[in-house]
């Protein structure tokens, strides 16, 4: 079956430092990868959508300078939260989807705490 | 405004009761998914149902595309069903599901 693994599952970083999180797709080709953030008391916000061999498209209020994303192949993606502050706390979810299907398979998320 | 609206915001049941969750969306959806988010945060896809009715186990989803609504029926609820149920729609082929705020379900023994 199609599985998406995210790691780390939980992480804590000091305010002003950076944190990298990874997303691994197993059992299918992750042509598209979407990164979401679920902040406390909020629903999921789309950060960016990455499609292999295409430019990464960031949503309003999110920038490459703050959330650089790498999507080097059809099984892996990573995102870094640069210069993290309290407002960056939350659950970061990776959703990956194969070409030709309008469905994303989600990982269990990386929960980021900022001290 | 909110593209995906879910109701009720929260629901409390006794074990064995049925639950009916609603999802309304403001524009045409080419894909409609229901997810379960555990109290720990993990997201699990329950059903993909862009139109019609689908069943899996104790879950039944009915989506009426032209009316831009979908429902999720949980029969004979169990305490392990407690968590948040999220509806997400995708329009076109852009792989960008838009999520609702979810329905928080608590099932008491």
What do you see in this structure?
The complex is a heterodimer of chains A (115) and B (109). Chain A has strands at 3-7, 10-13, 19-26, 32-38, 44-51, 57-58, 69-73, 76-81, 90-97, 105-106, 110-114. By secondary structure, chain A is mainly beta. Chain A has a single domain, classed as Immunoglobulin-like, CATH 2.60.40.10. In chain A, the strands form two sheets. In chain A, strands 2, 4, 5, 6, 9, 10 and 11 form a seven-stranded mixed beta sheet that branches. In chain A, strand 7 and strand 8 form a beta hairpin. Chain A is globular, with a radius of gyration of 13 Å. The termini of chain A are far apart. The model of chain A has no long low-confidence stretch (mean pLDDT 92). Chain B is mostly beta strands and 109 residues long. Chain B has one domain (4-108): Immunoglobulins (Immunoglobulin-like, Sandwich), CATH 2.60.40. Chain B has no helices and eleven strands. Chain B has strands spanning 4-7, 10-14, 19-25, 31-37, 43-48, 52-56, 59-64, 69-74, 83-90, 98-99, 103-108. The interface between A and B is medium-sized, with 22 and 23 residues.
């Amino acid at each position: 079956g199609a599985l998406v693994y995210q790691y780390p599952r939980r992480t804590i970083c000091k305010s002003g430092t950076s944190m990298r999180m990874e997303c691994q797709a197993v059992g299918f080709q992750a042509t598209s990868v979407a990164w979401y953030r679920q902040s406390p008391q909020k629903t999921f916000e789309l950060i960016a959508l990455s499609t292999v061999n295409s430019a990464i498209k960031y949503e309003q209020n999110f920038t490459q300078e703050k959330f650089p994303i790498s999507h080097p192949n059809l099984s892996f993606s990573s995102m870094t939260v640069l210069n993290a502050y309290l407002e960056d706390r939350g659950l970061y979810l990776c959703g990956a989807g194969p070409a030709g299907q309008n469905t994303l398979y989600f990982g269990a998320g990386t929960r980021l705490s900022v001290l | 405004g909110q593209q995906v609206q879910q109701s009720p915001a929260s629901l409390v049941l006794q074990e064995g009761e049925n639950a009916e969750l609603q999802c309304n969306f403001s524009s045409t959806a080419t894909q409609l998914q229901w997810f379960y988010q555990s109290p720990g945060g993990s997201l699990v896809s329950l059903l993909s149902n862009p139109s019609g009715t689908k069943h899996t186990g104790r879950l039944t989803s009915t989506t009426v595309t032209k009316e831009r609504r979908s429902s999720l029926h949980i029969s004979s609820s169990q305490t392990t069903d407690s968590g948040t149920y999220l509806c997400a729609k995708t329009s076109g082929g852009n792989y960008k599901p838009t999520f609702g705020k979810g329905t928080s379900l608590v099932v008491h023994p």
